[in-house]
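Reopening this ticket.

The earlier resolution said the output was attached, but the attachment link was broken on my side. Pasting everything inline this time so it's all in one place.
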Amino acid sequence: MKITICGTGAVGLGLASALARPTSRVQLLVRSDATAISIQSQGIKRIGLFGDLEISPDQFELIREPRTLTVDPPDWLLICVKTFSTDEIAEELEAIAESLQPVTKLLLCQNGWDNEAAFLPFWPKDRLFHARIITGFHQRQPGLVEITAHAAPIALGSLFGGDLDVLEPLVDRLSEGGLPAETTQEMGAVLWAKMLYN
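Inline output:
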């Protein structure tokens, strides 16, 4: 299973720390020079709840432009950018969507409601999923993330009746990496509950 994470802020780093494996590197789409340099030299370090963890640089592949994804499309593309950057990344993905769609499924790991609107004009609903993250991730340094709170497992699901079975390998990998995760049939209610929690 090839996983790409778009966005290397607190959430992106936190998820990357759980998903990386020595035999299956996580690909990171990195915009920040400081973050790229830090991960290339030191990898990612996770501290706080669930214990301390250091993931070596060789468990990550760094790319700087979305078009690089067309060379070997990932099975999963996790969108972890802030909501205000959603339109920008959607525009970049639209240009390469035809190359990605046969292989790649999108997982939106963002706060708020209606983030999928920017992707729906060019991405199939049955390959678009959401994640509710109610874990407190804080980026202390470019490659250092701290887990400061954890209220519930990461919930993965679909607003459009998508097949939740395809999410199970991702759920297992997150949980094995130290971040409890589960699927949900009630993604809409779960997202609204997160907004009320915030």
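Reporter confirms the inline version is readable. The helical segments are 10-19, 33-42, 86-94, 97-100, 168-176, 187-197. The mean pLDDT is 95.
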